[in-house]
Every structure is written in C-alpha cells, then in structure tokens.
From TrEMBL:
Entry's transmembrane regions: none
Keyword tags: Magnesium, Metal-binding, Transferase
Pfam families in UniProt: polyprenyl_synt (PF00348)
UniProt record similarity statement: Belongs to the FPP/GGPP synthase family.
Domain of life: Bacteria
Protein name, as recorded: Heptaprenyl diphosphate synthase
Obligatory cofactor(s): Mg(2+)
InterPro entries: Isoprenoid_synthase_dom_sf, Polyprenyl_synt, Polyprenyl_synt_CS
GO biological process: isoprenoid biosynthetic process
Recorded GO MF terms: metal ion binding; prenyltransferase activity
Lineage per the UniProt record: Bacteria, Bacillati, Actinomycetota, Actinomycetes, Micrococcales
Origin species: Knoellia remsis
PANTHER family xrefs: ALL TRANS-POLYPRENYL-DIPHOSPHATE SYNTHASE PDSS1 (PTHR12001:SF69), GERANYLGERANYL PYROPHOSPHATE SYNTHASE (PTHR12001)
Amino acid sequence: MTLTLPEVSDELRARLVDGLARVEALIESRIDHDDPFIAEANVHLLRAGGKRFRPMLTILASELGDGVSDAVVTAAAAVELTHLASLYHDDVMDEAELRRGTPTANTAYGNSTAILVGDLLFGHASALVAELGPEAVRIQAETFIRLCTGQIRDDRQAPEGTGESPGDYYLRVLEDKTGVLIATSARFGAMFGGCSDDVVETMRVYGERLGMAFQLADDLIDIESSAEELGKTPGTDLREGKRTLAVLRALESTDPADRHLQALLRSDLSADDAHVAEALELLRAHPALEQARAETRAVGAEAQDALGSLPDSEAKAALLALATSVTDRAS
C-alpha cells in the first residue's frame, strides 16, 4: 500500500514535486563518495525507493509560510537522511533480508558495513543541520536522543509496577520511535518557511500525532492485509515477536474465550506459519482489532485538531487531508 499526496491544486502539487526533486538531488550530491564501494552502499536504500513522506511533510509545512527555500530543502534532506540511516540500523537489529523489495544493506554488504553506513548517513544529516544554525542542531540532537530512547524501549516489555498498561506503554514508545522524526520534519518546514513560533509548535504537535498514526496504521495493515495487498507475507510483526497495539489489547482481555489466542500470541511464532495464520485469523475477528483501529483514528484526529488554530489555507487543507489518508490506509 502506498501513501499518495492529498488532493491539492496543480500549482501546489508542482511546488511539492519540484521541492522533492531538489531534496533528492541534494541528498545524492552529499552522499556521493570517491570510493565506489562507499558510494554504492550510501545510495543502496535511497535508490530502492520509498514514499519520501518526511521531506514531503517538511515542504508542505513550509507552505504555511513563505514556501520552499534552500533552507527548507536542506532541512528536508536532513530528516530524510536521518530516516534512511535509521533503516540501515533497523535492518541489522531485525536481521531483515529485504527492504522495499531490495536486499537490505546487511544482506548485501554485511552487518558491520550496514551499521557504519547508517552512522555515515547520520553524519551527513548532522552536517546539513549544522548549516541551518544552532537551534536546528539542538532540535536534531533532541530528535536523535528520542529516536534511540524509543527503539530501546520498543525492544523491552512494559515495566511492571508502573500502573501503565502495555498498550499505553506502546503508544508512549511510538511518540519517540516514530512520532519525533515526523514531528521534526513538520517543525523544520514551518521554521525555515518563516512561520511564527506558535505555528512551529503547532506543526511539532501535529507531526508527532501524525507519526504515531502512521505507525499504528502500518501495524494494522500487517494484520489485516493479504499477501497480495501487502506485497509480502502478512504477520511479519507476529513472526518477529513484536507486540503491536491490537496484540496488546487482545492480551489485556480477561475473557476466558480468548485464552487460546493469548497463548498463541505469547508463543514463539518465528518459524510456525500455521500458528501465525491461525493467530491472524483470530485477531481479525477479535474486538481488539477494532479497538486498535479506533485508537488509530483518534490519534489521527488529534493531529487534525492541532491545526485548529491555523487560518484556512490550501496548505492547511492538505495537512488535514494527509492525516485522513494516513489513518484511512488501515480502514
């Protein structure tokens, strides 16, 4: 499933497409290297495709102010490089073999090279942000800290004795793991588009909720979709032992009828396709799935509500439509 640009005028669409082309060209020029092997590894995931969701959001947010500028393009390139760098590391941690239909860098070059290329791309992102001034550097550092914090927490179960349910803990993890970089994408667009501090903060809040909704929708798609719709086998999260929101809500159930499903969800499903298929079938019929879908819509609505203080404009309408399109993927 792909995420398309929301309905916008031909003029705005042309500015977004042109801005993204400038971002792509800047990234390509910055990560080129005189060592052919390093150059190839640097562009491995970039040329595998992707939605370019984060830089598109940066450019769209800039339309709330003065629109695309060199600084906006630089900021958009920095957030996309940060995202790409994190994917190199994610694939090593997950022992993933494919990304966007292409062998992962760890498959193609080995874990050590994949980790180092991720580090190298983080370095390029930092160099770009440094061109934008000390406040941008501070925001990027804060973003990186929260990205790592979210990933560390995502690899652990919810701590006991806090009074927080595992499902609510997972939502908090997503604020850091996924929400913060999308928040920074929107924030940078408003900042370098010349918007007021109030609008910049509005876009930070919008972006964080949008990022959470984006991940929650992805989680649901992995449960609900067929192999034909996904382009890959569904239930990847179950096989990897990742407990996403619908799974956590099902595990919270006290209904004795759910014990078999709960036992399946707590078992090792990494090499048992039959049990994965059974767990998916039971989850699809369980109220926890609709609960997770409702929570996804609620988070998307929070993103839209954050825009309430903005005056009406085509850019605002596009941002509202973007939040709808993110959550509608899992409807």
